[in-house]
Amino acid sequence: PVPTTTLNSGHSIPQLGLGVWQAENDETEKAVAHAIDEAGYRHIDTAAAYGNEEGVGRGLASSSVPREEIFLTTKLWNADQGHDSTLAAIDTSLGKLGVEYVDLYLVHWPLQDSERMKQTWSAMEKIAESGKARTIGVCNFEPHHLEVIRGDGEVVPAVDQIELHPHLPQQALRSFAAQHDIVIESWSPLGGTSNSGWGKASKPNTLLDDPILAAIAEKYEKSIAQVIIRWHLQNDLVVIPKSVHAERISQNIDVFDFALDDEDLMEIARLDDGERVGLHPDEMNLGAPD
Ligand code: A2P
Questions:
Q1: Burial class (CB in 10 A: 0-12, 13-18, 19+), 259
Q2: ipTM for the complex shown
Q3: How far apart are CA 246 and CA 223, in angstroms?
Q4: Ligand 1 centre from 128 Cα, in Å?
Q5: Is residue 283 part of a domain?
Q6: What's the CA-to-centroid distance between 181 and ligand 1, angstroms?
Q7: Residue 288 maps to a domain
């Protein structure tokens, strides 16, 4: 019984989904099948750049839940930005996923090149019109990137998926998004992995053994991961924790039998130090897309 949030497209998105960044096809297939059939997930978040859309597709196909009951997201890679290449990229993704449509198609990163981004967005609008994506949105867009699209396009992105966790609560971007009817999704919601990210090494995860969170977790007899996931949910965010381990996948959705109180939320607010684990959007693509 995962609550849903209504998007500006009129479609609704389950507030909790499974992320699969850095998972290979075979482990992705198993993770997706477990998430849907055993754990009760109805929302899967992948990307062309993850290289595991086929694994997601096989996991979906093997599950006993019909396609229309699943909320499926994939993302357009930087190198495919531009009008025609965006139109081609969605077809490639649909082919790999083995589906007729995705629920959400996201532009993975902003570019410095505003003209190219506008061309991309006009293709995204066509993709939404064609029904190949029910809803369209972006990732890693700061207000100045959103303004480029809002000024030019007709469709306001329904979603902005950004790095967000207790070290980086993103208050400014959240209030901008709220004013413009854009739903925020949190990536690296548990503080990310210690594996290297794109372009530069990401920082080690310091949230999953944080003493403040550990104390709260102990109080509710829950794990730190579960406390962090509750924090996202109670902040009205859409959250997509990644795991390839069956036990953790199940644990991460077992968060609807407790709630953080105001005091917990105030304690967690102390963790805001602005530390990112991934790239800042303006660091991602300084020149031509690659
Ligand atoms: P794994 O896939 O090996 O379980 P993110 O913040 O990007 O969602 O990162 C989650 C990271 O934490 C992943 O590396 C994941 O690794 C790990 N993880 C996911 N769920 C849990 C959990 N319940 N307890 C501990 N670690 C977790």
A1: exposed
A2: 0.98
A3: 15
A4: 32
A5: no
A6: 30
A7: no
One digit per residue, the tens of pLDDT, for the chain of length 290 reads 899 999 999 999 999 999 999 999 999 999 999 999 999 999 999 999 999 999 999 999 999 999 999 999 999 999 999 999 999 999 999 999 999 999 999 999 999 999 999 999 999 999 999 999 999 999 999 999 999 998 877 899 999 999 999 999 999 999 999 999 999 999 999 998 865 455 445 677 889 999 999 999 999 999 999 999 999 999 999 999 999 999 999 999 999 999 999 999 999 999 999 999 998 988 876 554 44
Identify whether 95 is part of a domain.
yes
CATH classification at residue 71: 3.20.20.100
Q: Where in the sequence is the domain holding 226, given as residue range(s)?
A: 4-277
Query: Cα of 51 to ligand 1 centre, how many Å?
Result: 19
Domain count for the chain, please give it.
Answer: 1
Distance in Å, CA 187 to ligand 1 centroid: 12
CA atoms of 133 and 152, how far apart (whole Å): 20
Minimal-distance CA residue to ligand 1 atom 24? 225
Atom of ligand 1 nearest to the CA of 241: 8
Asked if 101 is an active-site residue, the reply is no
Pocket residue to mutate for ligand 1, from 190, 237, 238, 252, most atoms within 8 A of Cβ: 190
Q: Which residues line ligand 1 (CB under 6 A)?
A: 19, 188-193, 208, 223, 225, 241-245, 248, 251-252
Atom 2, ligand 1: residue with shortest CA distance? 243
Put simply, whether the predicted model's pTM sits higher than 0.90 gets the answer yes
Q: Rounded CA gap, 247 and 103, in Å?
A: 27
Cα Rg, the chain, nearest whole Å? 18
The answer to the question of residue 286 being in a domain is no
Contacts of 85 (CB under 8 A, 6+ apart): 79
